[in-house]
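Tokens for chain A. Residues wanted.
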């Protein structure tokens, strides 16, 4: 699916007309380029600011960034003439009162006009739930409100996201570093205004950041097209051997996708009662191990509840939530250290959506399933997380009538739909060893979709 409006306003008269008329001006996003794995992590120097309390913490962050061979500055005035910041990292882990946030927030405000297109702002703060002192909790939650508002103010494809560390998780924990790197990179192009919680120091920094999944085996359901096909490609690019699952009717396109990455195809309806066993058999035969499961297969059966048939309700629930629930009964016991279950939720499951009572029931169910599964799989060193896409350009959304489709596409801070690869990159990050400290979370990939809770 192409976004013709974005093409139109990206250059020439279309650009100036959109500006004059006050129309949305979506920017081309800085995305991963499969052909250039060596592309810089950020598009310019990185400024590290702190709350004045966490100076040791911001030293750790600055050292990490230097280790990644980035051009790191600590002083907003240090940027040379004509240059633009590639990223700003705000280390706010020491804030014990909202009063501590003013100085770094205003220092950031002073450099916003000099952010490069596709720049990143990342906050690092502590989890509010771990504190009891009202001023401390106010400061920690204050960061959330600040970040979400800031993300709505950024332009030119720049995004702002936050890392929330549980108390006791050090700044150089594998998942603190992994999340920082994900947010800075082009991999997080369509993740905006989000805070991701790092609950533990589990996980591992990969030997090679460009192939973190080397040696792992992943299963992706609904792999024949759309988001699933993109997930297959990105997991394979990151080093995984991949098994793609889809219904027999999609067999040809499934084979095509899986041949492309030299993976293997399994034609299977995931609502079959023995679906998980058949997947395990297939994986055991070919690869002898299973590390990552991506529950991606999904269907839409939209109707207002007043017009909803029993079939539409039941078919949707069967594929979108009952099948993953049943399969996890088998998979959860199979996954060992480094195991990952990643399930597709949706912003509809968070905010609700007219005509989607069945879909939102299932997708909110995915979030609940993930939350409950997390402590269970943690006992064997695995994690369970969800990804909630907003409007993504796929065959599924191409079927939405033109006017509501255009409205849905623009209703986010980046004023455009995401691409399947954007969701796939978030899934690949959650599948990676560096995400081992992220568990039970739902990461939205929605360009900061304006629908809230
Ligand atoms: P899609 O319709 O393009 O692809 C879904 C795939 O799942 C198809 O190949 C289909 O054959 C397969 N599938 C359906 N039922 C199956 C079954 N019973 N067994 C095995 N395979 C089955 O959808 P998409 O847009 O790529 O969405 C992928 C996932 O992301 C879904 O879970 C969807 O709900 C979720 N999602 C999508 C969007 C979006 O904007 N596209 C937004 C939020 C969430």
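Reply:
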């Amino acid at each position: 699916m192409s976004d013709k409006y974005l093409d139109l306003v990206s250059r020439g008269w279309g650009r100036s007309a959109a500006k004059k008329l006050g129309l949305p001006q979506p920017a081309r996003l800085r995305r991963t380029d499969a052909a250039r794995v060596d592309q810089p992590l950020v598009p310019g120097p990185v400024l590290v600011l702190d709350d004045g309390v966490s100076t040791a913490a911001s030293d750790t962050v600055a050292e990490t960034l230097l280790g990644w061979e980035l051009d790191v500055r600590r002083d907003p005035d240090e940027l040379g003439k004509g240059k633009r910041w590639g990223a700003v990292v705000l280390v706010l882990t020491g804030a014990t009162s909202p009063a501590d946030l003013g100085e770094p927030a205003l220092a950031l405000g002073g450099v916003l006009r000099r952010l490069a297109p596709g720049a990143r702002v990342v906050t690092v703060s502590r989890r509010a739930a771990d504190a009891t002192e009202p001023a401390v909790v106010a400061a920690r939650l204050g960061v959330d409100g600040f970040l979400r508002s800031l993300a709505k103010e950024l332009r030119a494809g720049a995004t702002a996201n936050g890392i929330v560390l549980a108390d006791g998780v050090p700044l150089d924990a594998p998942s603190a570093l992994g999340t920082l790197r994900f947010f800075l990179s082009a991999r997080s192009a369509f993740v905006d205004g989000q805070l991701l919680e790092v609950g533990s120091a589990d996980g591992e920094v990969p030997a090679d950041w460009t192939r973190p999944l080397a040696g792992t085996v992943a299963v992706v359901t609904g792999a024949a097209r759309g988001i699933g096909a993109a997930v297959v490609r990105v997991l394979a690019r990151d080093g995984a051997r991949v098994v793609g699952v889809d219904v027999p009717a999609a067999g040809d396109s499934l084979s095509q996708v899986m041949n492309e990455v030299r993976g293997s195809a399994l034609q299977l309806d995931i609502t079959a009662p023995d679906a998980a066993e058949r997947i395990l058999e297939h994986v055991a035969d070919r690869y002898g191990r299973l590390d990552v499961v991506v529950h991606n297969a999904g269907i839409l059966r939209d109707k207002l509840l007043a017009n909803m048939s029993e079939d539409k309700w039941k078919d949707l629930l069967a594929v979108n939530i009952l099948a993953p629930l049943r399969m996890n009964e088998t998979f959860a016991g199979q996954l060992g250290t480094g195991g990952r279950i990643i399930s597709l939720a949706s912003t509809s499951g968070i905010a609700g959506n007219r005509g989607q009572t069945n879909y939102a029931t299932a997708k909110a169910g995915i979030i609940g399933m993930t939350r409950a599964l997390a402590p269970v799989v943690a006992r064997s060193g695995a994690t369970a997380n969800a990804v909630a896409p907003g409007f993504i350009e796929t065959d599924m959304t191409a079927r939405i009538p033109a006017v509501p489709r255009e409205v849905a596409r623009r209703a986010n801070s980046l004023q455009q739909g995401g691409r399947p690869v954007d969701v796939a990159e978030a899934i690949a990050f959650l599948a990676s060893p560096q995400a081992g400290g992220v568990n039970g979370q739902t990461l939205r990939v929605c360009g900061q979709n304006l629908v809230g809770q």
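The radius of gyration is 22 Å. The first helix runs from residue 4 to 9.
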